[in-house]
Structures are given as C-alpha cells and as structure tokens.
Design brief:
By secondary structure, the chain is mainly beta. The protein has one domain. 6% of the residues lie in helices and 38% in strands. The protein has one helix and 14 strands, in the order ββββββββββββββα. Strands 1, 3, 4, 6, 8, 10, 12 and 14 form an eight-stranded parallel β-sheet that branches. Strands 2-5-7-9-11-13 form a six-stranded parallel β-sheet, with no helix packed on it. It is globular and about 35 Å long. 27% of the residues are buried.
C-alpha cells in the first residue's frame, strides 16, 4: 500500500479544458471540459464537469454531464448528473438529480465492464423507430420540442464512453 499524499485541490475560480489524471485524492471545485481520473474524487457544490469521471470513489455535490465509472459513487442532495453511472456501490441522498442509466458491476473500472455496459444500452436503429411521445399517456401528453425523440447531446455515442 502506498503512503497517502496531500490531496490536490482545484479551486472554484479554475476553468480547465483537457483531461485531469491523479493517482491520489482530488477535491475539484472548478469547471472542467474533459475527463477526470483519480483514486478518490470530490466534486464540490459549485463544480461542473463535462466529460467522463473514472475513480475508485467519487462524491458528487456539483454537476456532471457525462458518464461516471467508480467502485463507490455517492450523490449528495446538491448533485446534478446528466449521464450514466457504472458502479459497485451507489448512495443517493434525497434531492439529488440524476438523468441517465445506472448499472451495478463487480469491477466498474475494468474495460470489459465498460464495454458490456455499452452493449447493454439499447441503440436507436432505422428498423426500430422511437416511441411516440404520448404512447401510453394520452390523458397527459407532455409538450415537447420538435426533436423530443432524439437523445440529448450528452447521451450520444460519441460523447459518453459508457455506451
């Protein structure tokens, strides 16, 4: 077992584009457009990550737009997740916002688990048109924009590595 180092702290006034990699603990409070990989990660209340998060343990208090793969995932009441989660352990506090799919895995950090998760995800094909917006809910049709049947950009095949 390697000795514990000093946690890296990225403050809320930092805006980054690119990937962040650490073999230790990271407290991230800034804005990141890119992936972040660390042993342990805390995404602060005001933090925003647009990309993949891969960690042993992650606590999300802020916003993540992209996939999360971690052995232990904790979503605080202030968390806002737009993407998929592959985990061994998941804890969600009341008030957390999560839009996506989650799936348990004994080893979510392995490449094979990631590939299996991508395969399990249904793909839209020309032979299987998307369901109508009002299917099964004709008594309460929800107004939607014209592109309601399209997946949001953060769920696209090219955006999330969990597919």
């Amino acid at each position: 077992m390697k000795p514990a180092g000093v946690p890296s702290i990225i403050s809320n006034d930092v805006v980054m584009r690119g990937n962040v990699t650490s073999s230790g603990e990271v407290q991230f409070d800034g804005n990141l457009e890119g992936d972040i990989k660390a042993s342990s990660l805390i995404i602060g209340d005001k933090a925003s990550v647009r990309g993949e998060v891969v960690c042993e343990t992650v606590i999300v208090r802020g916003r993540v737009e992209g996939g999360i793969r971690a052995r232990s995932v904790s979503l605080a009441s202030t968390a806002h997740i737009l993407g998929d989660i592959l985990h061994s352990s998941l804890q969600v506090e009341s008030g957390a916002h999560f839009e996506g799919n989650c799936r348990h895995s004994d080893d979510p950090l392995s490449e094979s688990a990631s590939k299996d998760f991508r395969k399990a995800r249904p793909a839209t094909t020309a032979s299987a048109p998307p369901r109508p917006v009002t299917s099964g809910h004709d008594d309460h049709p929800a107004p939607r924009p014209a592109a309601a049947n399209e997946a949001p950009s953060f769920l696209s095949q090219s955006r999330s590595p969990l597919r």
